[in-house]
Amino acid sequence: MYGFINTCLKSLVIEKFGEETWEKLRTQAEVQDTFMTYQVYDDDITVKLVTEACKMLNVSAEVVLKLFGEYFFNFCKLSGYDRMLRTLGGNLMEFIENLDALHSFLSLSYQEMNAPSFRAERREDGEMLLHYYSDRRGLYHIVPGIIEAVAKDFFNSEVNMTILNQSEEEERTGQKEHVVFLVTQKKNVQKRKEKERGGKGMDKLRDKEETEEALGKMKEKYSALPHCPVKRTHWEIVRSIVMIGHGNLSNSFIPSYPDTLWIEAQAFCNAFPFHIVFDRALKVKQAGVNIQKFVPGLQTFDIQLDEYFSIVHPEVTFTIESIRKFINSQFVLKTRREMMPESWKNQPMLKLRGQMMWMESKGCMMYLCSPKLRSLQELEDRKMHIADIAQHDTTRDLILLNQQRLAEIELSNQLERKKEELRILSKNLEVEKKKTETLLYAMLPRHVANKLKEGKKVEAGEFEVCTILFSDVVTFTNICAACEPIQIVNMLNSMYSKFDRLTNVHDVYKVETIGDAYMVVGGVPIPAETHAECVANFSLGMRIAAREVTNPVTGDSIQIRVGIHTGPVLAGVVGEKMPRYCLFGDTVNTASRMESHGVPNKIHLSPTAYSALKNKDFEISERGEIEVKGKGKMTTYFLVQNLKATEDDIMGRAAGDPSQLHQENEETQDDSHDAVNPSRKSSKVDLLGDEKDQEVELSNVDVFGSDAVNTKFCILL
C-alpha cells in the first residue's frame, strides 16, 4: 500500500505543481531513497515522506493527503473499479457501509491487503457520523478527499467533513487509530453552480424550456394510458406516469415496517438455519436449527459464544463494543476444536461467514450467516450435506458452480495430460519411425522405399550404363576352416563396416553381401555420369581399408580381390515378404568374372570399365589377354591409383587428421566384442567353406550364365 502511495504522490505532485517541483523534491536527501523504492511498508517512512513533500510545497499535510485521496479515487475508477464502486450503494451512507464488504472481497486477491474499516451512523438531526478505523496512523486526512470525490461524482452532492474526535483503541492486532468525522451533505450543488455561472435571463429561458419538455413527456404518457372504468386516485395516476427509481424519488425511499412480526420463532429458526442471537455479555439467546446440529453446545441457551467460536475476520476482540465498531465488515467465525465432540476433533472445523446486526430494542446482536464452503469436498469433510443449507442461501449455488468449475478444470488437466502423453508417444513414434526408415533405406534405395511406403508399385527400370563392383577375401575358405565362426563374423563385420562408410563417401549403392562377397553399383538407382569414377575411387578405398582388418589365422592384414565392369542392367524390386532391390543382366555376370579371375590386392577392370576410366586421372596398367570363363578371351586391366587424389581423400578424412582412422579402429575393436549367436553364423560359414576358392562368390550365377547370355538377364546372388 505504501509503495502505491509513494507512486501516486509522485503523479499527484507532477499533476498539481508541475514536474519541476517534483524534480526539486526528489533531490532532497531525506526523500531520495524513499521515492526510489516502490515497496515501502513502514508507517513512519510514509508519514515522513508526506511531511517532506509538504515542506517543499509549502502546504500542510492535510492538504496533500486530501488531494491524494481525490487522486486515489480517480485512479481506482481508471483502473477498472468504476462500475464496482458505483453499485455499492444508492446514497453516500450505503456506499460507506458497504466499503468493508468490498475490502473483504478484494482481500481474497490481495492477501497482504490491510484495509481500514468504515462505519456510518445517522444522528437525530439528520447528519452523518463516519467512524474510521486503521492500523496506519497519520493518514486519516485521505478520507475526506475520497468521500468528497465520491459524493461529487456518484451522488451529485457536496460534502463537508469535520473531525470530531481522534483516539487510539486497543484491538487484537494492536493499537488502531479511531477518527470520527461529521459529514454534512448538500444536494444538487453542481446544477446550482451552473445556474450561478449563467445569466438570469438564460436561466429563466432554460427553466421554461425544461418545464415545457417535462410537461410534454407527461402528457404523452398520460394520453397513452389505457381507458380504465375503475376510478383511480390522483396519486395512482402520477405514480403510473413518473418512473419510480429515476430522479430524486429513489433517494427519498422510506421503508414501512409491520407493527407485529408475523413469523413464528420456530419458522424463523428453520428459515434461517444458520443464525445466532447473543446479548451484550455474549450469551446465546437463539440459534438456527442447523447451527445447533453442527455445534451441539448451542442447544443449551445462555452459554458463552466466545467459548465455542473465535473471530477469524476482522481481527478484533470478541466483545460487543469491538463488533459494533466493525459492524459493516463481514464476520468470519470458526468453531473451537476443544469444544467439539470427541469424534469430530479430527475433521476440519466449521467456519461461518455473515453479517452482524445490532438490535437496539433487544440489546442483542444477531449474526446471520452461512457455512463458509467452496466445494463438495469441504462439505463432505465436515460431514455436511447440501440439504443442510437453506434453499435461499447462495452458498448452495456457489458450491455446485465451483464443483462444476473444478470438474471442468480436472477435465482440462486430463486433456492436457493426455495431450502431453500423445506428444511423448508421437515423439517416440517419430524416433522409431526414423529407425525403421534408416533400416529400410539400408535395404532399398530411398525413392524405391518411399514408393513402397505409399503403397505404390515399383516398376523395373532399365539403365543403359552403370558400373558394378564385386570383391571377396583371398583364401577365405582356408580362414573359415582354421577359425571359430565367431572370429569370421567379427572379421567380416569389421571389414563391411569400413566398406559401408565408403559407400557414403563415394556415393555408390551397396547391393548385396553373401559371405565374403561384397557388391556395389554406381549409376543405379540414380543415374550419374561419374558412375565409373565413383566405383573406381571406392575400390581404391576398399583396398586401403582391407589393410586395417586383421586375418584371424595369420595376424596379418587380409587381402581382397576386386573386379569392375561397366554395362547396361535392369533393376527392380523382387519379393513381397522381404523385398530386395536386385540387378539383372549380363553385366552382373561379367563383373563377377572380373573378380573371380582377379589377383590378390589388385583391382581388375574389364575393357568397358577401362574405356570409362581412361583419360580420367587414373593410373591403369594393362594385364593382357586372359581366358574368362563363359566369356572367352578378354584384354583386361589393373587399376593402380588415382593420380590427383590422396589416400585421405579416398578414405574421406581430412588430410593429416588421424582421428577418423582412430575412430574406425575403435569401432573395429568394439565390434569384436559384440555378442553374436555362433550357431546361426556357423551354418553359413560352413556352407561357404565347402566351396572352391575361385568360385565362392557366385556359384548360382555360374549355373545360369549361358541363359543370361541369350536372354540378357541373370539372377543376382
TrEMBL record:
Region feature Disordered, mapped onto this chain: 191-212, 652-689
PROSITE patterns: GUANYLATE_CYCLASE_1 (PS00452), GUANYLATE_CYCLASE_2 (PS50125)
Record domain Guanylate cyclase: where: 467-595
Record keywords: cGMP biosynthesis, Coiled coil, Cytoplasm, GTP-binding, Lyase, Nucleotide-binding
Coiled-coil blocks: 401-439
Family note: Belongs to the adenylyl cyclase class-4/guanylyl cyclase family.
Name the record gives this protein: guanylate cyclase
Organism the protein comes from: Huso huso (Beluga)
Taxonomic classification: Eukaryota, Metazoa, Chordata, Craniata, Vertebrata
